[in-house]
Design brief:
It is built from five helices and seven strands; from the N terminus they run βαβββαβββααα. The protein is an alpha/beta fold. β1, α1 and β2 form a beta-alpha-beta unit.
């Protein structure tokens, strides 16, 4: 079984909405017999000093630099893996855990020039020493319709998880098909196409990641 740590960063007013999204992702994997599950580990906190101001054509935005988020998530995953190893004391239980996913209310920015991510980027993923870090900003997906908002995020989480298992962007009717606009994203089906689904299932079964 593959476990992905799930957390959030920022001032989420409706935390139940996040839990609903995580639960829906787990329900999807369960119903489709894919041995992948999100495990909620609580909120992730960064010191206020990390916040930076970025001037854009839409005004000034406050956000955590992407690099700071990546470093913090990487450190948290390393810490939890170490604790898991110590708890198992060498007992091989078949558990694989080498991934962490964070949702954030802040836009995704870098110390490089500001990314115009609103219509171009769903999120960000990076692999460091075989550990996979995924970050998804809720900002581009916001909708006053809470159910539509949750569906957009659900598809965004599936997209990032797909990347973490080696899936590339797809041109079909699939969550791995990145949109040009949020309206296009609303038209994407809340699932993988057959080709991406089979690749995800195969990679999830044979991932050589950190096993405990």
């Amino acid at each position: 079984m593959q476990f992905i740590e799930a957390t959030y960063v920022g001032n989420f007013i409706d935390k139940q909405m996040l839990f609903d999204v995580f639960d829906e992702v787990n329900r999807y994997f369960t119903e489709n017999n894919i041995d992948v599950r999100l495990v909620y580990i609580g909120p992730l906190k960064l010191a206020p000093g990390y916040l930076v101001s970025i001037k854009t054509s839409n005004g000034t935005l406050r956000a955590y630099p992407l690099e700071a988020l990546i470093e913090t998530l990487y450190s948290r995953l390393l810490q939890d893996i170490k604790e898991l190893i110590e708890q198992r004391e060498g007992d091989d239980t078949g558990i694989i855990m080498n991934k962490i996913l964070a949702l954030t209310t802040f836009p995704l920015i870098s110390r490089n020039p500001y990314f115009d991510f609103y219509e171009k980027f769903l999120g960000y993923h990076e692999t460091i020493t075989n550990l996979r870090i995924m970050i998804l900003s809720t900002e581009p997906f916001y909708s006053e319709d809470i159910e539509n908002f949750k569906m957009r995020l659900f598809k965004g989480v599936l997209h990032e998880i797909g990347h973490s298992f080696g899936l590339e962007h797809c041109s079909g009717e699939c969550v791995m098909n990145p949109p040009g606009t949020i309206e296009e994203w609303d038209l994407r089906p809340p699932t993988y196409c057959d080709r991406c689904f089979l690749e995800l299932k195969r990679n999830a079964e044979y991932d050589p990641g950190l096993k405990f």
